[in-house]
Write a structure and sequence with these properties.
Length: 150
Amino acid sequence: MKIAIVEGPLLDRIGSREPDVYGNFSRKEMIRSLNGEAEKSGIELVFLSSYIEGDLAKLIVNCDADGMIINPGAYTHTSLLLRDALLCWGKPFIEAHFSNVFAREIFREKSYISDISSGFVAGFSENTYKIALEGLTALIKRDNKIHGKT
Ligand code: DQA
């Protein structure tokens, strides 16, 4: 199984950016640990990112993976384009945020992608993607079973 982790702008700064909000941790270590978990379960991870909305849309529609964990950063709250790209892609995805967006400014409560996602994970800092990965792989396995693929 292949899972893509797609990130929008400023997420490469997580771990040091606004540590009170997102947590203070090594991003390199977070990715190392995530890759370790994936490997144990026989999952291949691909990491895709851009600061540019149109480029993210292209990455999404061209993504060769069975599922996606996506953290669009600020584009979560503004981007109809990313919503359309995810609908066009048509495979299961989890919306993931390092911070609890519902415990912050009111404008962060609006997401253009939550209602079309298979699941939502927020507020678990460096463990966010790990939790999302566990949930997403379980969903994909369940769907494959229902459709007789495994
Ligand atoms: C974020 C939350 C967004 O509101 C914010 O714009 C980000 C990061 C998160 O991971 O908590 O850039 O997506």
